[in-house]
């Protein structure tokens, strides 16, 4: 006999059935389009590095501003500081990760964003890193 029925949305992420993928939306010239569709509805984390040589407090303040801007644009992002110049941005819906990455790499103090093993240099990257 089954215990109480649990709504599908209340199941842990690893027990939910994967969302169907609409292959008509995949652009063969852009491998990111495949990742966007496969990460939709799944939790995803990205690393963000702050440029310069910030203290942990400065990193906290800068990334807090970025998180606030993303929140105002209706992106649900949680932020965790993991070093004096690094933070993790956790997204509930990984389908938006590339839009958020585009926002972050255009910030003056963003050195780079690491998303799905790929490092994207930011506006604040050293010229040698770009």
Automatic annotation (TrEMBL):
One of its GO terms (molecular function) is low-density lipoprotein particle receptor binding. Residues 1-32 are annotated as: Disordered. Coiled coil: none annotated. Residues 1-10 have a biased composition (Acidic residues). GO terms for cellular component: endoplasmic reticulum. One of its GO terms (biological process) is protein folding. Keywords: Chaperone, Endoplasmic reticulum, Signal, Wnt signaling pathway. It is found in: Endoplasmic reticulum. Belongs to the MESD family. This is LRP chaperone MESD. It comes from Thalassarche chlororhynchos.
């Amino acid at each position: 006999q089954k215990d109480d029925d649990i709504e599908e949305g209340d199941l842990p992420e690893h027990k939910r059935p994967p969302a169907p993928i609409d292959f008509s939306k995949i652009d063969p010239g852009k491998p990111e389009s495949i990742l966007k569709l496969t990460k939709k509805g799944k939790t995803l984390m990205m690393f963000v590095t702050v440029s310069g040589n910030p203290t942990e407090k400065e990193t906290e303040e800068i990334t807090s501003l970025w998180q606030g801007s993303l929140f105002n644009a209706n992106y649900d992002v949680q932020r965790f500081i993991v070093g004096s110049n690094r933070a993790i941005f956790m997204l509930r819906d990984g389908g938006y990760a590339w839009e958020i990455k585009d926002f972050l790499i255009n910030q003056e103090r963003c050195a780079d964003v690491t998303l799905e093993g790929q490092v994207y240099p930011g506006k604040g990257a050293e010229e040698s890193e770009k």
